[in-house]
Structure formats: structure tokens, C-alpha cells
UniProtKB/TrEMBL annotation:
This is Uncharacterized protein.
């Protein structure tokens, strides 16, 4: 008799257990998003507060090795570069990072010398990308 009760109890326990290691994916089909286009940017200045124009930079997804900086170019990029502001991730990448986090490495170069190497943790929900951790104001000495 006790064996049957124990077997029923164990069966119920196993049926109701779930794997907590699997991330719960959010269903985005019914989510209303704002029309804002979010871009996570980094400001680079020297010790006196003057904007630093890097010769080049990379945003490397440490998991895939993909350089995301190739997504940023054109006139708006040139203006940002003059202001010392560098985009590292935008809503254009939202689907790629939706419902998960990723580690990105920002590498900045002047005269082919690496002067910046910063790590960022980013993610995205159904609507926008977000910065989890990382320094968005870099001061070069």
C-alpha cells in the first residue's frame, strides 16, 4: 500500500518539476513597443574633457567573434565620431540578442595602437536593447 502511495507521490513530483536552467522565452507577439530607436553608446574623452576621435574601433561579440561596428557608418557616424561618441549596440540588433545577454568588447584604435579595451554586458527584450553592465564614459590618459 505504501509503495503505491509513494509511487504516486514521486510521479506527481516528477511531472510538476521543471528545468530551472532553461531561460524562459518571452512571447513578444502581443507586446506593444514604443517607436523609440535605442542605441547604446560610449563617450570617449581625454583627461581635459575633450572628445577623442578614434581612427577605428571594433565591437566584438565574444561568443561569435562578430564585429558589430560594421553596422555603424555614414554621415551620422562621422558626426558621432567627431563628438567622441561611439555606438556599440542598437535596436537593429535587438532580435539577435532578444531574451538573452551577451558580452561585447569595445576596442578603440589610434594610429593602429589599441587604446581602449572595455567589456560590456548587453541584452534585449521584445522591444529594445539594453546595457546590463559596462562603462559608458571612457577617459583616456
Amino acid at each position: 500500500m505504501y509503495a503505491k502511495i509513494f509511487l504516486v507521490f514521486i510521479s506527481l513530483f516528477l511531472v510538476t518539476c521543471s528545468n530551472k536552467n532553461e531561460p524562459e522565452l518571452q512571447d513578444c507577439s502581443m507586446v506593444a513597443c514604443t517607436l523609440n530607436f535605442v542605441t547604446i553608446s560610449v563617450s570617449v574623452k581625454d583627461a581635459s574633457g575633450t572628445a577623442v576621435a578614434l581612427d577605428s574601433y571594433e565591437i566584438i561579440d565574444t561568443e561569435t567573434g562578430e564585429n558589430l561596428a560594421t553596422n555603424f557608418n555614414g554621415e551620422e557616424y562621422q558626426y558621432s565620431k567627431e563628438q567622441g561618441i561611439y555606438p556599440i549596440l542598437s535596436d537593429a540588433n535587438r532580435v539577435q540578442y532578444q531574451n538573452k545577454s551577451a558580452t561585447l568588447t569595445f576596442k578603440g584604435y589610434i594610429d593602429n595602437e589599441e587604446v581602449i579595451n572595455e567589456v560590456y554586458e548587453v541584452g534585449a527584450d521584445c522591444c529594445h536593447v539594453s546595457l546590463i553592465t559596462g562603462n559608458t564614459e571612457i577617459v583616456l590618459e
